[in-house]
Design a protein that fits this description.
By secondary structure, the protein is an alpha/beta fold. The chain has a domain of 220 residues: NAD(P)-binding Rossmann-like Domain (Rossmann fold). It is built from eleven helices and 13 strands. The strands form four sheets. It has a seven-stranded parallel beta sheet with strand order 3-2-1-4-5-6-11, with helices on both faces. The longest helix has 24 residues. It is globular. The structure holds nicotinamide-adenine-dinucleotide. The site of nicotinamide-adenine-dinucleotide has 29 residues, from helix 1, strand 2, helix 5 and strand 5.
C-alpha cells in the first residue's frame, strides 16, 4: 500500500513509517524538521527507516517540506492510498507561548491534507488527535462521549482538527478517523516530557522535578500501541467518520512515576517540586473499549512494564540520545 506519513521524522511518525516499511508498504514521509527539539533525534529516526528498507519489501522516501505548502501536499496526497497525518506543533506549553504558530501548523496543515485528499482517490485519512481535547474530567476514564473542554490552545487545535475531519467525511465522503492519543512514550521519545526527563535526570544524579504536587495522573501509552492502532486502520473501514481513544487504559500519578524512576536509577535523590504549569490537564485516563470493539485494539503493556522497557532502551542508546535530550 502507498502510505503518506506527515511528520514522519518525528517521534510517533518515525515509528509509524518504520513499522509500515517493515510491513512491506511503500512509505513517503513529509517533514520540515521543525527545531522544536534537537534535530539529531529526527536524523536517527530517518536513519532507522532507511535501514529498515534493506531487510524487507517496503520502500521509504523522505520529502523535506512543509505541510502548509498546499501544492506540495496536493502532489504527495495524490500518490498515496492512505494518509497518516502526524505533522503538528505538539506540546501544550508551546501552544500557550505561540498560539498562532500552533493554529497555523495544526489547522493550516490539516486543511491542506483534507482538501487534497477530497480531490484524490484517497482511501482514508488517519489524524493524530489528542487526549488534550477533553481538558477537564467530569468522569474517568474518558470515553469518547465525555464532554470536550480543552484547557490549552493545543487542545483547541486538536479538537478543531477533529471537526474538520468529520466535516470532510460528511461533505466529501472522505473517510477520516481521528485517534485521540494519550501521552505517548518509548524509544526516541520527545525530550521535555515527564518520562524522558525523569530518566535523563536520574541517570545524571539530578533530582526529578515535578511541576505541581504530583497528584496529577496520566495514562501513558507505549508507542508500539499507537503503531498498532494506526496499522489496524489501514485495512478496515470500521471506524470511518469516528473518533477513538488510544491509550494504555492504565494510569499513574506523576509522583508515583517519579518515584518509580528514581527508586530504579538513583534511590538517594529527593524529588523536587516546583510551581504547577499553566494549561496542563489534571488527569487523563483512557477507556479503550471503542477501539477494542471496532478495531480489536488491545494495549500491550502496563505503564510500569513500559517504563522499565524505556529505561532499558535508554541505557542501550544513552551515548547518542542523552546529549540530545539534554540540549533540547
Ligand atoms: N507524543 C504525544 O504524547 C502525543 C500525544 C497526543 C497527540 N500527539 C500528536 O501526535 C503527533 C505526533 O507527535 P510527536 O510526539 O511525534 O511529535 P514530534 O514533534 O516528534 O513530531 C511531529 C513532527 O511533525 C513535524 N512538523 C511540524 N510542523 C511541520 C510542518 N509545518 N510541516 C511538516 N512537518 C512538520 C516535526 O518536524 C516533527 O518531526 C502530533 O500530531 C501530536 O500532536 C502526540
Amino acid at each position: 500500500m502507498r502510505i503518506l506519513v506527515t511528520g514522519g521524522a518525528g517521534f510517533i511518525g518515525g515509528h509509524l513509517a518504520e513499522a509500515f516499511v517493515e510491513d512491506g508498504h511503500n512509505v513517503t514521509t513529509l517533514d520540515n524538521f521543525e527545531p522544536f527539539y534537537d534535530l539529531g533525534i529526527k536524523r536517527q529516526t530517518v536513519e532507522r527507516c532507511r535501514t529498515a528498507v534493506a531487510d524487507c519489501e517496503g520502500t521509504y522516501e523522505l520529502v523535506e517540506g512543509d505541510v502548509r505548502d498546499a501544492e506540495l501536499v496536493s502532489d504527495l496526497v495524490a500518490d498515496a492510498e492512505v494518509v497518516v497525518h502526524q505533522a503538528a506543533q505538539a506540546g501544550v506549553r508551546t501552544s500557550v507561548d505561540e498560539p498562532r504558530k500552533v493554529t497555523d501548523i495544526n489547522l493550516g496543515g490539516l486543511v491542506n491534507v483534507l482538501e487534497s485528499a477530497a480531490q484524490s482517490e484517497t482511501r482514508r485519512v488517519i489524524l493524530a488527535s489528542s487526549s488534550s481535547v477533553y481538558g477537564k474530567p467530569q468522569s474517568l476514564p474518558y470515553t469518547e462521549e465525555h464532554p470536550t473542554e480543552p484547557v490549552s490552545p493545543y487542545g483547541v487545535s486538536k479538537l478543531a482538527g477533529e471537526h474538520y475531519a468529520r466535516v470532510y467525511d460528511e461533505l466529501h465522503d472522505l473517510p477520516t478517523v481521528c485517534l485521540r492519543y494519550f501521552t505517548v512514550y518509548g524509544p526516541r521519545m520527545r525530550p521535555n516530557m515527564a518520562i524522558s526527563n525523569f530518566v535523563s535526570r536520574c541517570y545524571n544524579g539530578e533530582p526529578p522535578v515535578i511541576y505541581g504536587d504530583g497528584t496529577q495522573t496520566r495514562d501513558f501509552t507505549y508507542v508500539e500501541d499507537i503503531v498498532d492502532a494506526n496499522r489496524l486502520l489501514l485495512t478496515t473501514d470500521a471506524a470511518d467518520g469516528d473518533v477513538l481513544n488510544v491509550g494504555s487504559s492504565d494510569n499513574i500519578s506523576i509522583r508515583e512515576l517519579a518515584e518509580t524512576v528514581r527508586n530504579r536509577l538513583a534511590p538517594e535523590l529527593d524529588i523536587v517540586y516546583e510551581d504547577a504549569r499553566q494549561a496542563d490537564a489534571e488527569h487523563t485516563h483512557a477507556s479503550v473499549e471503542k477501539a477494542r470493539e471496532l478495531l480489536g485494539y488491545a494495549p500491550s503493556r502496563s505503564i510500569e512494564e513500559g517504563v522499565e522497557e524505556f529505561i532499558e532502551w535508554y541505557d542501550a542508546n544513552r551515548e547518542w540520545y542523552e546529549p540530545l535530550v539534554q540540549s533540547s
